[in-house]
Amino acid sequence: MRRLGFLLRPQWLALFVVVIAFAYLCFTVLAPWQLGKNTRTSRENNQIASSLNTEPAPLISVLPHQDSSAPDAQWRRLTATGHYRPEAQVLVRLRTDDGDPSYEVLTPFAVDGGPTVLVNRGYVKQGDGPGVPPFAAPPTGTVTITGRLRDAEPIMSGKEPFKQDGIQQVYSIAPTQISQLTKVPLTAEYLQLVEGQPGGLGVIALPHLDAGPFLSYGIQWIAFGIVAPIGLGYFVLAEIRQRRLEKAQSGSSTETSGGPDPGPNAEEPAAPLTAEEKTEQKLADRYGRRR
């Protein structure tokens, strides 16, 4: 156990905490976050692809009542007959079309024999000035429209609705919020008009059917969560091996030195003789032996 005592040092304890916390986040937060985005993107791609090959259905067959909801029918094409309610029209800010700033126009649509649904009529590009650009009003009277059913967007925090030029403006397509602002009951989902519809403006293009990198990112975070503890174990083993090697080298150096230090009373080795001292030593030895 003494060999592992270094693991209790503050720097090693801190390293353990960091690695464990990182692995925990990889498995519980980061990987599920990316895998969840991949699941939602794949689901949306499948719904869009299915809608392209499916004939439009009556809206009242999917949303028969005002409080009806159809979260599994997103992107499905639906048809509805009724009339627009332009007095409750709303603009959505901070949108783009081909990189250009724009607004999206939302107008409630009262379905004959059915609920009132919010309709995204399309976009209008923002002009050079600060005001709202002019755009066509919806047709009056009874019309039949076709659009794609869309889920509500989350309300953007920190961005409060306001009125400008007499038009209510919001930052998200959230029928619940818009219903509170306009005092018009709306279904939970909304319709996004397809091309060539009465009251339609700039057509909002479908997103690309691309799953994106979310699956690979999720797998990478899982791999990071596995590799981090393995890397920590490798460093621990390397430290143990290094300590063993240093201990072995210390023991071998003690043996080759001929034992312990002789101490202060031991005789010091004689200094080497100079040339003159060597000559005198030879003469002394020669004449001394003769005597």
Automatic annotation (TrEMBL):
Residues 275-291 have a biased composition (Basic and acidic residues). InterPro entries: Surf1/Shy1, Surf1/Surf4. It is found in: Cell membrane; Membrane. The keyword Transmembrane helix applies. It is a multi-pass membrane protein. Keywords: Cell membrane, Membrane, Transmembrane, Transmembrane helix. Residues 246-291 are annotated as: Disordered. The chain crosses the membrane at residues 12-33, 214-237. The keyword Membrane applies. Pfam families: SURF1. GO terms for cellular component: plasma membrane. PANTHER family: SURFEIT LOCUS PROTEIN, SURFEIT LOCUS PROTEIN 1. Belongs to the SURF1 family. This is SURF1-like protein. It comes from Mycolicibacterium mucogenicum DSM 44124.
